Amino acid sequence: MIPFGMHCEEVALREFRAMIVQENARQIPAGQYLFVECYCDDPECDCRRVFIQVYLQPDAKRIVLSLNYGWESPTYYQNYMVWSAKLARQIAAGCLDPLSPRPAYAADFLRLFRKHALDEAYKARLKRHYALFKASLRRN
User: Fold this and answer.
1) Half-sphere exposure of residue 38, counting CA atoms within 13 Å on the CB side?
2) Cβ contacts of residue 40 below 8 Å, gap of 6+?
């Protein structure tokens, strides 16, 4: 997975998503969380998903957690990626990456992400960014 900005720098600088978390009863530290989109760099792969690295500003030097999201149906991921039905449903809903850091507040953060950040406009943007990224791979 390669950051979107490595192939589409101008678009990545102009079109990114962040989420501000206020003081809360949960364990989620207050602050601005920057989402860095990463996509598969295999031009032949059509996985139709994004790997989102989450950084807490202003430091933004360390990944706080990572998310996976796929905009197709769970059936697509179950068939294309030969994943279990459970994993396919998780990818289609947005899920925590099992191999990345997972702070104590990760599940609460995922719920906020799904409810407040993963709106229809952002889903459409991720899909468009995926197409731009894949097109840039084919050109290079």
Assistant:
1) 13
2) 1, 2, 47, 49
Measured CA to CA, the distance from residue 75 to residue 93 in angstroms comes to 12
CB 1 within 8 A of CB 38: yes
Token pair 């030969």 is found at: 82
Residue 53's H or E segment, with its range, is: strand 49-56
Q: What is the pLDDT of residues 81-138, one digit of tens each?
A: 877 899 999 999 999 999 999 999 999 999 999 999 999 999 999 999 999 999 999 8
Residue 75: phi, psi to the nearest 5?
-60, -40
Dihedral of the alpha carbons of 19, 20, 23, 26, in degrees to the nearest 10: 0
Mean of per-residue pLDDT scores for the chain = 94
Q: What is the DSSP string of 55-77?
A: EETTT-SSEEEEEEEE-S-HHHH
d(CA 35, CA 76): 25
Distance CA 32, CA 19 (A): 6
